[in-house]
């Protein structure tokens, strides 16, 4: 992996990806923040050596380098998931690349289902902690100690200072921002009624199929990290309706302006 990382980083530096400060991973239906960017360089994933390629139709596949609120940023427009057939090392490879290019802070967004029924679809949730239900770890491979501390501390995986800033920005802009625990599952199937009940019992406020692997690796690399979920559906096991992917995308799109405000204001104040 070290050889692959070196080759990928060299390629991106040659393309002009120089000294970024912040990395941003965009989740389902959350691509419009790129319209706020002063784009300097962009490259399709399938042109980057050793980079995975997004296979989900509503995830684009570009790495974008530019300026946002005066800071140099790298934006992943489209992320990778275990359910696409990738390994956890594939899924988190871009985080390692962004760190080698120079980022100190990683901001992540995702779409998730609300387990906590006080939370409503179309609202946002700041992730305060998580539960890894993906069955393994992106650090569980030979030689990981050469890339960072094998036994990465996860006592506070989400940066408290950044989370406080997010909460202050939400309050100042009248944005409803819940705070809670995110559970990450493999997918791609949605959960059964019994699984939703289990998730509630173990303390999850929202559930999705991403984010946690990237957060683990970001902590492994000593990056400051924060994540916000768009709640796209309400997971009430007693009133469960068949999933409507189009409605999920519509909810993510509806909440997107609030997400963009949070990210832009935060980056301005980093």
Please characterize this protein's 3D structure.
- With 270 residues, the chain is of the alpha/beta class.
- It has one domain: Nucleoside phosphorylase domain (Rossmann fold), CATH 3.40.50.1580.
- The protein has a 5-stranded mixed β-barrel.
- Helix 2 crosses helix 5 and helix 3 packs across helix 6.
- The protein is globular, with a radius of gyration of 17 Å.
- The model has no long low-confidence stretch (mean pLDDT 94).
Portion of residues within helices: 25-40%
Gap between N and C termini, in Å? Answer: 31 Å
Output the CATH class name: Alpha Beta
By CATH, the topology is Rossmann fold
Shape: globular
Rg, nearest Å: 17 Å
Low-confidence stretches: none
Pathway: Purine metabolism; purine nucleoside salvage
GO biological process, one term: nucleoside metabolic process
Pfam family, one: PNP_UDP_1
Function: The purine nucleoside phosphorylases catalyze the phosphorolytic breakdown of the N-glycosidic bond in the beta-(deoxy)ribonucleoside molecules, with the formation of the corresponding free purine bases and pentose-1-phosphate.
